[in-house]
Amino acid sequence: MKRLVYSLAPVALIVILLAIWEAACRLLDVPVFLLPAPSAIAIAAWQNAPMLVDAALNTLSMAVLAFVLASLIAFVVALLISIHPLAERAVQPLAVGLQVTPIMAVAPLAVIWAGLDHPGRAVIGLAAIVAFFPIFSGALTGLKSADPDLERLFDLYGARPLDRLFRLRLPSAVPFILEGLKVAAGLALIGAVVAEFVARSGLSRGLAWRLMEASNRLETAKTFAALLVLVLMGVALNALMQVGERAALRWWRGR
Amino acid sequence: MSTPLAELDAVEVDYPRGPALGPFSLTVAEGEIVALVGPSGCGKSTAMRLLAGLEAPTRGAVHRTSARGETAVVFQAPTLMPWAAARANVALPLELAGVEGREARARADAALARVKLAGAEAAKPAQLSGGMAMRVSLARALVTDPRLLLLDEPFAALDEITRRALGEDVHVLWAASRAAIVFVTHNVEEACYMAGRVVVMTPGPGRFAGETVVEGPLPRPAGFRTTEGFRHACEHVSADLAHGAPRPAA
Q1: What does the alpha-carbon distance between residue A53 and residue B124 come to, in Å, rounded to a whole number?
Q2: Cis peptide before B19 (omega within 30 of 0)
Q3: B82 touches chain A (CB under 8 A)
Q4: Which residues numbered 48-67 in B keep a CB inside 8 Å of some CB on A?
Q5: Per the CB < 8 Å rule, is A155 touching B97?
Q6: Using CA atoms, how far apart are residues B192 and B215, in angstroms rounded to an integer?
Q7: What is the span of the domain harbouring residue A5?
Q8: Which of these, B117, B113, B112, B114, lies nearest to B90 by C-alpha position?
Q9: What is the CA radius of gyration of chain A?
Q10: Distance between CA atoms of A61 and A66, rounded to whole angstroms?
Q11: ipTM score
């Protein structure tokens, strides 16, 4: 019973907030271009469903590509760097520089380099930059996190460097890498949306583009509908990564 | 005394924060059980790492007649790979030495059976109790049939009953393998029960503070803890510890 109450609590809160919103819009006669009622948003979402789904898939596919790209590069770089402390020392400032640079500031360059005809590539590149850091730092931390006594044991038995990497350091890094991937997946989606805004091209027909288009036309209900799809997509992605991480950890730890 | 298997010859170890050990000398003969007793921070674990060849002394020398791979270490924590099943954990030293996979697994299963863990081969460390995890760690040390077995406070984290049971099992395993054992502990009774010879160290940097030969057969017969010899040995070791400790300020 208690568990049921707890799992229904978020749903109840959302229903209550929506009810207040709906009632306020109706009672106060709020103009629909300023703040549409939830019912109006639902209708707009229903009517524009095919277009919104199409745009969402567009954004999602760019985010996924960026995520895969960032994972591969971050993992390989972390692996190479972990071989020697000097390499890490050399790369660290660059990595931090990349992390603290606002994506907006890099966007114009990315758009130029990707070519004005390929805004999708710019979006993928920018989202990949955003997703890079958590995976990189997770993998690097993880590769150095092996139990020091296990390291000693590997010393004692004269382990070769590759044995140490594959039998000790990589498996030890798994929980850190999973955490990095989870964070990066969310960031890749945010990065893709932000990059779409900055790329400002009608050629990339993702959710951000639809959002801007609708708000420029003062179709506020449609704007909200696009936003709703974006939020749902983010929540779903987060849940998926959470489940994936938990399952992988259960397998890793056997419990 | 038979041939020394390992010897610390007036070794001293300095760490950046100060001297950690010595000068300290210790000889380990083939097939004997020596307990190393001393207060926390006296450098017992450092002495173990020297014996294992995992660390070099700042001054002094370490002589070992046992080859690499003939020495095994059991740490205070089980130190298992959490992602690997018990069998894979135990097979690790063999696989690192290049033993073919199937044979390594078979020998790992045999080692697990020797520590009474037959049937737990596929369990991962998180699925084992503290005592069972320690047994896996022991099996991993035994799987290479070492001539020198270094036990660094192996039972410190276990409850008294599990501790005693494991201590008896170590004796049984020792009787079968006749590997020399160096057993670090700060429990006087455990030291006198486990070892034929107890070496006491002073507070850090640890030096030799005294030695006690514990009379009586190994493995210990039932009721050994109530014998005069055992009580005597414990008193002697306690006196060495008290003697080695700095006098409290008046």
Answers
A1: 44
A2: no
A3: yes
A4: 49, 52-54
A5: no
A6: 9
A7: 1-30
A8: B112
A9: 23
A10: 8
A11: 0.87
Are A126 and A238 in a shared domain? yes
Sheet of B33-37: strand order equals B71-74, B148-152, B180-185, B33-37, B197-201, B208-213
pTM: 0.84
d(CA B210, CA B99): 43
Q: Does B118 touch chain A (CB under 8 A)?
A: no
pLDDT digits (tens, 9 = 90+) for A175-184: 999 999 999 9
CA pair distance A42, A135, nearest whole angstrom: 37
> Per-residue pLDDT tens for B3-51?
688 999 999 999 888 888 979 999 999 989 999 998 888 888 899 999 9
CB of A121 closer than 8 Å to CB of A115:
yes
Task: Provide the token pair at A51.
Answer: 């277009």
A5 and A106 in a single domain? The answer is: no
Of B54, B68, B125, the CB nearest to A152: B54
Residue A202's pLDDT is 57
A144/A57 same-domain check: yes
- Does A167 lie in the same domain as A123? yes
Sort out which chain B residues have CB atoms less than 8 A from A157's CB and list them.
68-69, 92-93, 96-97
Spans of all domains in chain B: 4-70+146-244, 82-141
Nearest C-alpha of chain B: how many angstroms from A249? 9
Q: Which two tokens stand for residue A211?
A: 């959002």
| Domain B4-70+146-244 bears CATH identifier 3.20.20.70 | no
Kindly report the three-state secondary structure assignment for every residue of A132-179: HHHHHHHHHHHHCCCCHHHHHHHHHCCCCHHHHHHHHHHHHHHHHHHH
Neighbours of A47 (CB within 10 A): 13
**Are A102 and A180 in the same domain?**
yes
User: Using beta carbons and an 8 Å cutoff, which residues of A are at the interface with B?
Assistant: 147, 149-150, 152-160, 163, 167-168, 171-172, 174, 252-255
B216: buried, middle or exposed (CB in 10 Å: 19+, 13-18, 0-12)?
Answer: middle
Runs of H (alpha helix) within chain B: 44-52, 86-96, 101-114, 130-142, 160-177, 188-194, 228-244
